[in-house]
Structures are given as structure tokens and as C-alpha cells.
Amino acid sequence: xxxxxxxxxxxxxxxxxxxxxxxxxxxxxxxxxxxxxxxxxxxxxxxxxxxxxxxxxxxxxxxxxxxxxxxxxxxxxxxxxxxxxxxxxxxxxxxxxxxxxxxxxxxxxxxxxxxxxxxxxxxxxxxxxxxxxxxxxxxxxxxxxxxxxxxxxxxxxxxxxxxxxxxxxxxxxxxxxxxxxxxxxxxxxxxxxxxxxxxxxxxxxxxxxxxxxxxxxxxxxxxxxxxxxxxxxxxxxxxxxxxxxxxxxxxxxxx
Length: 255
Known about the structure:
Structural class: mainly alpha
Number of helices: 8
CATH class: Mainly Alpha
Radius of gyration: 19 Å
Largest sheet: none
Strand content: under 5%
Order of helices and strands: HHHHHHHH
Number of strands: 0
CATH architecture: Up-down Bundle
Helix content: 55-70%
């Protein structure tokens, strides 16, 4: 039976035939929407206060994209066949963690600069260029995959699978890039939460759209949403602008 014309839940278009196979939990997704909204505002406020502009852009975009993604899931709670909401959440929740990871890379560079470049075999000034370049490559792959998946909607399985494969390649590349940062100390918590999210996403996407793992919302909320939430919370409670002064614009001019 074809579900290409499905736009709402009916006897002919059951929730079990949707990609996720469930009504997204309203409470859980509303919590993450509000949480990431607060984190986004916090990161913008802290970024302005400490003048950590690049970090502010990375974490601010990451948190606010997460918020937008969970808004999409709230809309899907009312109508799991809502194609616009499906596209919104899949694109935002695939791409947002890449910006959080960019904050990890940027902070690492300045941690080494403050502790002393002699502690690193790699010139810390190259960290941003090397790791952000890798991140951009990952972002392009994931964006391409998300775009293909969004274009496929809920019904074009061949196109969904193609988008799925591209996203897996992008996330796998991101995992390999993140594993190079074993010297992180102050960031270790955020590092592992982002890493856990990436590792979870690989088998989830590898199983294909509508796979058994993809249709388990609790695992998604804990291993994706909660992991990125904890990373953004860590950066809000222990903002690099306070602990790593070199990240502040104009800091060197004061000495």
C-alpha cells in the first residue's frame, strides 16, 4: 500500500506507517525546546558579556537549531504525517551538534594557548583551521544527506536511503575528528557527550529510515537530546570566556 498521499492520521494512514512509528512525546520534546531556547539565550548573553564572538556564534546556533528541531517534533506530536515538521526536525537535529562540536575545537585551541603551547605537539593556532575544516566537511555531508532525506519526505524510500547513507558518512567523519582531542581536560564532559551522540546516530541511521532503533523515542531523547543538552549546559555553567581569557576579543590589548 502506498502512503504517498498521507497528510494526517487516518485508518488508511496509521501512525505505524510513519518514519518514526509513534507520536513524539509532547512533554519530553517541549522540555528540550524550552531548555535549548534558554541555553541559546544564555550563550548569546554570555558571549556578549565575555566578547567570545566566535564561540557565541557556534554554541548559539547549535542551541537554537536544537530548539527549532524540537519544535518540529512538537508539531509532529499533533500530526506525525506533517512533512514540513519532519523536514524541520531532521535537518536541525542532524546539523546542530556540529556547531557544538565546533565550540569544543575552538576552546581546545585556547586551553593549550593558556597552559603553554609546549604541551601540544601541534601548533595550537592550527587547531581551529584543521578541526573546523574537518567539521565543515562533516557539516556539508550531513547537510547534503539531510537535504536529500527532507526532499524524500516520508514515502520515497530509495531517496531516504540515499540521504541516510550520506548522513552516516558525515557523522562517522565527525566521530573520527572528535576522537583526536584526547588532550581535552576542562572540556572532557562536553567532549564525551557530543561523542556519545555521534556514536548513537551511526547505528540509528545505518538501520535505515523507520528502523527499530529509530522508532525508539526514549533512546533518541537520552542519547541525542540529553547528550547535547548536557554539553550546552556545561558550556553555560563553565563558560570558556571566564576560564580561558584568551578567547575574549581584545583581551591581549589589555596587557
